[in-house]
Specification:
By secondary structure, this protein is α/β, with parallel strands linked by helices. The chain contains 14 helices and 19 strands. It has 2 domains: about 100 residues, Arc Repressor Mutant, subunit A, CATH 1.10.10.920; about 300 residues, tm_1862 like domain (pyruvate-formate lyase- activating enzyme). The strands form 5 sheets. Strands 9-10-8-7-6-5-4-1-13 form a 9-stranded mixed sheet, with helices on both faces. The protein has a 3-stranded antiparallel sheet with strand order 14-15-16, covered by helices on one side. The protein has a 3-stranded antiparallel sheet with strand order 17-19-18. Helix 5 links the parallel strand 5 and strand 6. The protein starts with 7 loop residues before the first helix and ends in a 21-residue tail after the last helix. It binds iron/sulfur cluster (SF4). The site of iron/sulfur cluster has 11 residues, from loops.
Length: about 450
Amino acid sequence: MPLPVIPPELLAKYDAPGPRYTSYPPVPDWTGGVDETVYRTALASLGNGDLALYVHLPFCASRCLYCGCTATVTTRAQVVDQYLARLERELRMVTDAVGRAPVLRELHWGGGTPNFLDDAQIRRAFGLIAQAFTLADDIECSVEADPRLVTPSQLATLRALGFDRISFGVQDLDPIVQEGIGRVQPVGMVRTVVDQARAAGFRSLNVDVIYGLPHQSVTSFRDTIDEVIALNPDRIACFGYAHVPWIRPHQRRMDEQALPDRALRFELYQLAVERFTDAGYVWIGLDHFARPDDELARAADEGRLHRDFMGYTTRQSRNLIGVGVSAIGEVGDYFIQNFAHLGEWQRAVDAGLLPVTRGHKLTAEDRARGRAIRELLCNSHLDRALLPDDDGSTLDAFRAFEADGLVLIGERAITVTPTGRFFLRNLAMALDAYRKPQLGTEAPRFSRTV
Ligand code: SF4
């Protein structure tokens, strides 16, 4: 795919902190006022539509220095058993509040490292879910996995339970980068694990890659990309590294001097787009790539792509229940998040309370703006009818984007240009009522948009 040449001034202008918009409003802007009682009431009103469950399994064998997840490092298997016992209580509280065993159409295990669990713990965790919910015949089960901990029997166990999508955290395959980020996993190991997952019968295989990590160079990242292409995954998520040490202090343990500067970071992003698309992958939204016959690519092609807390998905209208420490959900008109601190989550569950720490009640305006932002991030296109009904300031902001070559404003729709595609988060910020209108005035609560 031919890439636009982006002048350094344009890059500098749009290199500002901004949300990734897996929800609107983004979590730091939630207004609160959602407690246990409100969540129970929302659960009690749950309809019969599509329902997804996210289970957070926070344990990891060691801390990767770039990590932005809620993770607990441990070597003790009994900690997992104690966690699963509390998860059972939380699941029971959820389904008691719903008043029935609702039908589950999607199940996702994230972390942390879900495959920190041994085979017996995996079976137990799945059994708890199967006990609490009615699993739809066509349920889609997906799991994140750390290649360093994968065993053939673990893959067989997951497959036997019905997991058919697996996502491996690869991030970067260069030994110097891996050393610098505290995550050493030789390419031979990754190849073996991918082969084992295929042999086990996983239908869909995703690989996560990160650009913007310390010590990455164009040459080293090109090698990583080419190795990833050779693995032939169905999907690739290529995220920009979010350096947020004020939220994740362990990130300071990396060599910050070795972080790519703005120009190099952007070059790595463009390199990924160029090589993955040249290899036949379809570029989806901000940072995903999929084989043209993959469901995600087909959904993008047909304008059915959706974005929520789980990233890009193909299912549009559904409720999402999150269980486990830090898990996020969307039920009815509410966003809900569990305590992110393990001790607080444990104390709430032990006290017989749904472990809600915060939430947000979606207003009609939130829904309208969220829809417009999703349209932009999923389809690189915005029907002008979806622009907020304001004093014209949003359209003015898009006129300024047009002057910079990021969009074309037509009579009925705004279309993102090939240059604008690299600044989707900035474009979305113009639709966000919680953001200050001037670029560069955002407090550093978010990662960089570029
Ligand atoms: S394995 Fe994943 S969740 Fe665990 S520390 Fe590393 S990046 Fe974080």
